[in-house]
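idk why but the lab printer keeps eating my pages so im just putting this in chat instead. protein + coproporphyrinogen III:
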Amino acid sequence: MSTLKRILVRKDTSCKSIWFMRQAGRYLPEFRKIRKKNRNFIDLCFNSKLSSRITLQPIKRFDLDSAIIFSDILIVPHALGQNVKFLKNKGPVLSEFNYDIFKKNKRKEFTKKLLPVYKAIKTTRKKLNKKKSLISFVGAPWTLYVYMFGLKNKGKINNYKFKKKNEIISKITDYLCLHISNQMKAGADVVQIFDSWAGLIPNKHLKQYCYIPNRRIVAFCKKKKMPVICFPKGIKKRYLDFNEFVKPDGLNIDYEIDPKWAKKNLRNTSIQGGMDPKVLLGSKKRILKEAKRYMDVFKNVPYIFNLGHGLLPKTRPEKLDMLIKFIREHK
Ligand code: CP3
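predcted complex ->
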């Protein structure tokens, strides 16, 4: 069993496990080299050979326990019929949501469109050491909804009172379960659900748009015996309610969460991450001090080392290497 699964499933505190969100990405020169020749990001996600190669880049360089498949949460809206473009300095832009197109989606076609992702998982699994996990992921329904309706860019977050909102979120959830099941069949052995925009939901609606959809997906994963990690970023002390309602195998904390508070309040789960990725842009001394803070707090609980959000493009790979070596040696 991989160290990641030992911590997630058996709540083993005798081993360490390290991986990073966005460990395959722009901070790596070898990724930038491929990216330069492949200007269309979505096309790159659908290139099985290259996406498998990119997935393995950080594994070759660093002492990591898990690979996360190189893909994106937005390939799901793409497969459901919305055009997705990544504009430089603007982030992702989706074509206008069309309810009729959305409604006509079929599970078989959806799977067919995403076959290159599953092929990349298959290829990567064969090349990856058996002791390492291959992590698959999905965006949570709310976070995908935010992108599908451009709620962030247009500054109209209150406009989510779209008439068919509940029906749409429920349908997105069905497709996410299918995507997880397909990734699992291809060889992924853990899944992470990214609810990156959970922090935009007013407290009184958190249950409806964040906890309930996450719980549905977690229940699906449990039925399939697929260990699942949730990341409801930005919900502050509501992490406590989230954990008790959703009951995931693992919970990634963001950098606003006090690790001591997390240790005390987030029970019956494995905690992952927490350290602010911006710290990695600072001095060696600061990096090691922060890493030590997390490692000391989470000493006798099931803890997976990671960050409170993805690695930033300006991170120097040497600093990451130093951090990993420090974690390995920490007692
Ligand atoms: O973590 C990994 O290494 C695996 C691959 C991965 C990517 N995106 C590749 C990527 C994962 C797990 C994601 C998740 C993702 N994608 C999230 C959830 C996590 C988070 O960051 O909150 C979100 C919200 C997205 C949507 C997305 N994709 C945005 C907003 C952007 C542009 C801004 C940015 O952060 O780069 C992307 C592009 C993207 N996805 C890149 C990579 C490596 C950069 C593409 C480039 O080269 O320009």
